[in-house]
């Protein structure tokens, strides 16, 4: 089978179904659940994968520039989402206002939407992957948000996450949170 041909069709469908253009740039939507589009565009930072979008640009000539623009827009968006909260950790969910492009909290997913927990853990994995592929933006983002590593250095463990206001979520150690810190540590504490 011609896998490249099939991949191109899938990439083109992803562009058509999952990417939204606003005046402030391109965004990846988290799915087709109607409330994701009410009032504002809901975003899941753990879905941000700029290295994938750059790769897609190579195989979708009709949207090459747009895929690259989406990849470039990830870091300002992710930083704005991350900086909404006192611990400066990426939230499970955030949002972008339709007309202004302002990044805001999203509460459509319930009371844990602002937390750094099981959705948000993947964010550091994805940014570490981008850093390992040479992205200076990824390295900068990881270096500018060391709060998880700082907590680990002081307490020698990580909880199951942090609430939106920065409080530890539970007392049990979390391997998932630790995996985020380990992914980040290669770029924040080399060696």
In words, what does this structure look like?
This protein is mainly alpha-helical and 191 residues long. It is 47% helix and 9% strand. It is built from 7 helices and 5 strands. The chain has helices at 3-18, 50-59, 64-82, 121-132, 136-144, 147-155, 175-188; strands spanning 19-22, 25-28, 41-43, 94-96, 103-105. The strands form 2 sheets. The chain has a 3-stranded antiparallel beta sheet, covered by helices on one side. Strands 1-2 form a two-stranded antiparallel sheet. A hairpin with a 2-residue loop joins strand 1 (19-22) and strand 2. The chain is globular and about 50 Å long. The relative contact order is 0.13.
Task: Map the helices and strands.
Blueprint: H1 3-18, E1 19-22, E2 25-28, E3 41-43, H2 50-59, H3 64-82, E4 94-96, E5 103-105, H4 121-132, H5 136-144, H6 147-155, H7 175-188
Antiparallel strand pairs: 1-2, 3-4, 4-5
Q: In terms of per-residue confidence, which ranges show pLDDT below 50 for 5 or more consecutive residues?
A: none
- Percent range for β-strand residues: 5-15%
Main sheet: strand order: 3-4-5
What is the mean pLDDT?
94
Key traits:
9% strand, 5 strands, two-stranded antiparallel ribbon, mainly alpha, 191 residues, 3-stranded antiparallel beta sheet
Quick overview:
The chain has 191 residues and is mainly alpha-helical. The chain has helices at 3-18, 50-59, 64-82, 121-132, 136-144, 147-155, 175-188; strands at 19-22, 25-28, 41-43, 94-96, 103-105.
């Amino acid at each position: 089978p011609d896998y490249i041909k099939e991949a191109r069709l899938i990439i083109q469908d992803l562009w058509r179904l999952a990417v939204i253009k606003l005046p402030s740039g391109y965004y990846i939507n988290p799915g087709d659940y109607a409330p994701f589009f009410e009032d504002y565009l809901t975003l899941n930072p753990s879905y941000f994968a700029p290295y994938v979008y750059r790769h897609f640009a190579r195989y979708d000539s009709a949207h090459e520039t747009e895929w690259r623009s989406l990849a470039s827009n990830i870091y300002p968006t992710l930083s704005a989402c991350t900086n909404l909260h006192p611990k400066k950790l990426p939230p499970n969910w955030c949002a972008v206002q339709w007309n202004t492009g302002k990044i805001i909290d999203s509460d459509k997913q319930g009371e844990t939407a602002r937390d750094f927990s099981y959705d948000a853990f993947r964010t550091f994995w994805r940014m570490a992957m981008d850093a390992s592929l040479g992205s200076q933006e990824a390295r900068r983002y990881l270096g500018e948000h060391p709060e998880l590593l700082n907590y680990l250095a002081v307490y020698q463990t990580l909880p199951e996450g942090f609430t939106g206001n920065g409080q530890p979520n539970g007392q049990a150690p979390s391997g998932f949170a630790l995996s985020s810190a380990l992914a980040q540590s290669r770029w924040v504490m080399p060696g």
